[in-house]
């Protein structure tokens, strides 16, 4: 089985290399924007969009023309890759996966990519790598790169430079370990597993929010582009970087722990884009509970659920497992014991009490169990014979065909829940 994996390191460039990298990133941005402007102009004149090959021909002209001769100082492959990125942006737009390509701004994801492994040399023993027109660059060698190098992306973030090394290697087909589990994602608890485990949220943004606000206010008082403005801006960027690093660390730790211990993970289809839409509404139809929803939106975006699901997906695949996405309707209102669906089942935010059979439990745990049973149903519908393979593990089938915890069944009749299995690991 082929495994594609990326490794990211911080670069330790010299001053000269930093200046060059800034110039190269700027050249790539220039080429991208120039090509986008050209495509837009062609569209307005009713002409056909130029393909990648046509754009590359133009790129050669630009590099040779006296107006933009400085483009020739940058390596040609990364410039071509910028055109390729534009092509992909257009394709994503036409396939309705993304909005129309936008012009790039300075300082906004400054990066460039070397696509040809033959031009790259990676010297891991000496913690350095060779890139065309940059020479040997030192990097913080925190772990070994496995596999053959396919391409390298250089990027800048908050004043630091990074390389992302894409690799490919042959690995043994993995054998899935562990059982099936459902996960409910929420605000009060980041993730609740159907076996009762839960992870407290990090809320890295909230913790840094007041510091960030103060730094942003200080920035707004400075004269734009002055030295003090630059210092204040760097401070804002540092806080942003802190937040994103803390969040990334948090998400990776949880997704690794879950994918190590489970073969199949069921999650809700969150449609975060819909959930995080503005609640303000329009002038004709003003939104309701605007403030409360704005708070919820901030929390949703802060949690990084989408990124979490993405990580779970590939990490499970690496270990031979897979992610099952189920429709989210009524997972928090359905009773896992009798199947009764009612909004009254959920009287408070964190408590579930069935009005039909009296079953009581933590609301997030109920959601996770419902997600699990839906995931199992979906697997059965798709004809994936996982029931036999996994029935001996963490979860068991109740007499009415719902997948619930064994310790719940042992206490059947009383329907008491939340035994000692529930614990906070975060
Ligand atoms: Zn019930």
Automatic annotation (TrEMBL):
The keyword Endoplasmic reticulum does not apply. Residues 165-278 form the Probable transposase IS891/IS1136/IS1341 domain. Residues 4-48 form the Transposase putative helix-turn-helix domain. GO terms for molecular function: DNA binding; metal ion binding. Keywords: DNA recombination, DNA-binding, Metal-binding, Transposition, Zinc. InterPro entries: Cas12f1-like_TNB, RNA-guided_DNA_endo/Transpos, Transposase, Transposase_put_HTH. It holds the Pfam family OrfB_IS605. One of its GO terms (biological process) is DNA recombination. Residues 305-371 form the Cas12f1-like TNB domain. In the N-terminal section; belongs to the transposase 2 family. PANTHER family: RNA-GUIDED DNA ENDONUCLEASE INSQ-RELATED (PTHR30405:SF25), TRANSPOSASE (PTHR30405). This is Transposase.
């Amino acid at each position: 089985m082929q495994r594609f994996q990326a490794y990211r390191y911080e670069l330790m460039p010299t001053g000269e290399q930093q200046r060059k990298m800034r110039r190269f990133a700027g050249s790539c941005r220039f080429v991208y924007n120039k090509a986008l402007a050209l495509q837009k102009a062609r569209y307005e004149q009713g002409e056909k969009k130029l393909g990648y090959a046509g754009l590359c021909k133009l790129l050669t002209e630009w590099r040779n023309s006296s107006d933009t001769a400085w483009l020739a100082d940058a390596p040609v492959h990364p410039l071509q890759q910028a055109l390729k990125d534009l092509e992909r942006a257009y394709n994503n737009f036409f396939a309705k996966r993304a909005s129309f390509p936008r012009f790039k701004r300075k300082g906004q994801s400054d990066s460039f990519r070397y696509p040809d492994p033959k031009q790259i040399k990676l010297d891991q023993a000496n913690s350095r790598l060779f890139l065309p027109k940059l020479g040997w660059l030192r990097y913080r060698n925190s772990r070994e790169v496995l596999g053959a190098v396919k391409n390298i992306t250089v990027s800048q973030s908050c004043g630091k430079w990074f390389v992302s090394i894409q690799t490919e290697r042959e690995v043994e087909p993995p054998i899935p370990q562990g059982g099936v589990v459902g996960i409910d994602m929420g605000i009060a608890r980041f993730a609740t597993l159907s076996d009762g485990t839960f992870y407290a949220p990090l809320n890295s943004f909230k913790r840094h929010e007041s510091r960030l606000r103060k730094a942003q206010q200080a920035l707004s008082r400075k004269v734009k582009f002055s030295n003090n403005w630059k210092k204040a801006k760097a401070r804002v960027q540092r806080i942003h970087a802190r937040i994103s690093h803390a969040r990334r660390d948090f998400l990776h730790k949880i997704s690794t722990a879950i994918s190590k211990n489970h073969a199949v993970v069921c999650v809700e289809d969150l449609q975060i884009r819909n959930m995080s839409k503005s609640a303000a509404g329009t002038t004709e139809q003003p939104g309701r509970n605007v403030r409360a929803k704005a708070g919820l939106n901030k929390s949703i975006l802060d949690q990084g659920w989408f990124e979490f699901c993405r990580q779970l997906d590939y990490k499970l695949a690496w270990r031979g497992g897979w992610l099952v996405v189920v429709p989210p309707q009524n997972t928090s209102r359905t009773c896992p014991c009798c199947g009764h669906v009612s909004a009254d089942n959920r009287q408070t935010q964190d408590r579930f009490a069935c009005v039909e059979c009296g079953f009581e439990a933590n609301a997030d745990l109920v959601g996770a169990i419902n997600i699990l049973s839906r995931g199992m149903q979906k697997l059965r519908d798709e004809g994936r014979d996982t029931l036999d393979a996994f029935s001996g593990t963490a979860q068991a089938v109740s007499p009415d065909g719902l997948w619930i915890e064994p310790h719940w069944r042992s206490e059947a009749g009383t329907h008491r829940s939340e035994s000692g299995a529930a614990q906070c690991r975060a």
